[in-house]
Amino acid sequence: KAEDMIQIPADIFSAIMHHTRIARRLADNVEPFHRQLQEMMGIDRWYKNDIAEMAYDVRSEFNYWLDEGEKLIEKYRREKAEINYANARLRKATA
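The structure corresponding to this sequence follows.
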């Protein structure tokens, strides 16, 4: 819905995407590390590991949102390229 949308500058969106990627990379490392640490400490695998579980959730969620964000960026770039192409053709036609 249009009323559910907000508009943010491209540089802010880019920064959000950048930091989301950093958080995802951190989660990619944290989850296996904490599972291995738990195993090295002799704690059974079935025992709840909140940190590893949280890292898994962060990674899963961020994968989804990064994919969605990258689709938006690609759409924006395509539209911008089409506008630039149309403007160039218009300038050439009027020159």
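Residues 8-69 form one domain.
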